[in-house]
Amino acid sequence: MTHLFLSKNAAALKKLITQRTLFAFDLDGTLAPIVADPAHAGIPKTTLTLLCKLSTHTPVAVISGRSLRDLKHRTSGNFAHLVGNHGIEGIAEFRTQSIEARGTCKKWAQALRRNGEGLDAGVVVEDKLYSLSLHYRMARDRARARKKLIDLADNFEPQPRIVPGKCVLNLVPQNMPHKGTALVALMKQLRVKQALFIGDDQTDEDVFGMISPRGLKIMTVRVGKKTRSKAQFYIRSQGDVERLLRAINEGWADELSLL
Questions:
Q1: Which listed site, 18, 96, 110, 191, has its alpha carbon 20 to 30 Å from 251?
Q2: In the CATH hierarchy, which top-level class contains the domain 2-91+177-253?
Q3: Model-level pTM?
């Protein structure tokens, strides 16, 4: 993993500036700053303006763990390509799996309601229809709350795939599409051969660690350096996303300069 804003990487990024490239982004921690209450997260106005400008040149997508309905609200309906629930929702070819996922999550939600009295104060259960997110950022003892949630989820039937995030545990049905498979499906749908994906946490490793299918090229960038991440490049902070968007937008009209 190398820092993206090095002069030696400018050529690689410049090659992506074509109308046949898909630019895809996670939401929380990437386009939107992390906040204590996920309900209050939002894309800064400047970032949204830069994204809209980019979308006039080439396809732009948001691929998130949030529900599709939530994504439409937080992106103000500006983008045609939205994928929710970690890749399960928003791709037509995954419809059968999404129906199966909905039935599974309904069982988990019922189990949580039955055992709700055992949840720590400050834990927020978010039912996104096709996956569940258990937020513990506002719990008094986060470590204790996290352990209790994991113990509870381990007893669910069928057992979920637990994808950790920043003070959140995402419960996703096993053997379902993920962000990586969704990105590839979207690339094929749009008939593009290359993509740039930017994310910030464990849920994005499904893209970072994926081997690009033959004939496709996927450049991956992580927000924040992490030694164990499979991303090819990193930028230091969520604020650098705007810097990257400005550089990409400038690349359409002039020679790309990252420095």
A1: 191
A2: alpha beta
A3: 0.90
